[in-house]
Design goal:
This protein is α/β, with parallel strands linked by helices. The chain contains 13 helices and 12 strands. Helices cover 45% and strands 19% of the residues. 46% of the residues are buried. The structure holds ketopantoate. Residues 146-179 are annotated as: Disordered.
């Protein structure tokens, strides 16, 4: 039974993170709706519920309401929170319209994307006071239309879209970076649903940290067709990682978000911790789906061009992947 005292949440996007979040929120008793891309997936979720499988093999099924993108209210929704779990390539005006259609008049919109730039794009379309951005290291792998494996607990950090690092100090002084009651309620719900989460007023650094990890692991695993762990376990691939990292480190200095002293070690640690995982970009390549390359390496290259920083290794990896993707190279399994 859904609990009326908990915030009502709509999750947009029924990929791995969206399914896991909607499944966990519904299991925690929140009024939860998930918006799938297709009618077929929405019907599968409606019929079978979302099955979440844990690392120990146990399985739990919960039953959020489900709908699909073309069946969305134009306005007048009642969600307290709408969580955008679509990938950057799918974040467009139509998705914004769907989010606003589901949100109540003061409903918050929370963006959960990899890369950078989406927070600024969204802030041009949604009032900043309602917009929140999350950086998550949760691990999930979709196993079917309504099934998902939890592959890592991770941390989800939430902050305001306008808290872009440079302004963080000022925002803190002015007291605007703190979470309000609605933010606190939502984070309590997330914790009750088993998600570790925290408020951050250093969103820009976290976005860059996640981007650093993704810009090294995702393109290399997609190019070499290997699981994450293989990158750090071979001296040759590790050297390649280090080349990409050195360039990103220099770009981060030019951007005013320098990498912390432990950043390189953290990239290696993610490889080890997720050793058996196939990165999301490799999975996209294997399934012939659009990848986030332009929003991950592409966004780095655009920033590098603006700052006049050379990134030959990242550029070569980008071009090689683009060429492979456009020729639809057969994938080894
Ligand atoms: O976030 C990831 C992804 O696959 O997109 C990593 C951290 C590389 C884990 O697979």
């Amino acid at each position: 039974m859904a609990d009326k005292d908990l915030p009502a949440v709509t999750v947009i996007g029924a990929g791995s993170v969206g399914l896991l979040l909607a499944g966990d929120l519904a299991a925690a008793g929140a009024r939860t709706t998930i918006v799938a891309r297709t009618r077929a997936q929405a019907e599968a979720i409606g019929r079978y519920g979302i099955a979440v499988r844990e690392a120990d093999g146990s399985r739990r099924v919960s039953h959020p309401a489900s709908t699909w993108a073309d069946e969305t209210p134009a306005r007048g929704g009642s969600a307290d929170w709408v969580v955008l779990c679509v990938k950057q390539p799918d974040l467009d005006d139509r998705i914004c319209g769907i989010a606003l259609g589901h949100a109540g008049a003061a409903g918050r919109i929370l963006a959960v994307q990899n890369g950078i730039g989406h927070e600024e794009w969204l802030a041009e379309r949604i009032e900043r006071s309602r917009l929140r951005v999350a950086v998550t290291t949760i691990g999930a792998r979709r196993t079917g239309a309504a099934g998902v494996d939890r592959t890592g607990r991770g941390m989800t950090s939430i902050g305001r879209a306008d808290d872009n690092g440079a302004g963080a100090g000022r925002a803190r002084q002015a007291g605007v970076a703190a979470p309000d009651e609605s933010d606190e309620r939502f984070m309590r719900l997330l914790r009750a649903a088993g998600w570790s989460c925290e408020w951050t007023d250093d969103l820009r650094r976290l976005l860059w940290d996640k981007l650093t990890v993704n810009a090294i692991i995702n393109p290399l695993t997609a190019l070499l067709r290997v699981p994450n762990g293989r990158l750090a376990s071979s001296p040759d691939t590790k050297r390649l990682m280090r080349e990409l990292y050195g360039e990103i480190e220099r770009l981060r200095v030019a951007e005013g978000v320098p990498a912390g002293p432990d950043m390189w070690e953290r990239v290696l640690e993610v490889c080890r911790r997720t050793a058996a995982n196939r990165s999301s970009m490799l999975q996209d390549v294997e399934r012939g789906r659009p990848t986030e390359l332009d929003w991950i390496t592409g966004s780095l290259l655009r920033a590098a061009e603006r700052r006049g920083v050379a990134m030959p290794a990242n550029r070569t990896v980008y071009l090689l992947l683009k060429a492979g993707l456009s020729t639809g190279t057969e994938v080894e399994r």
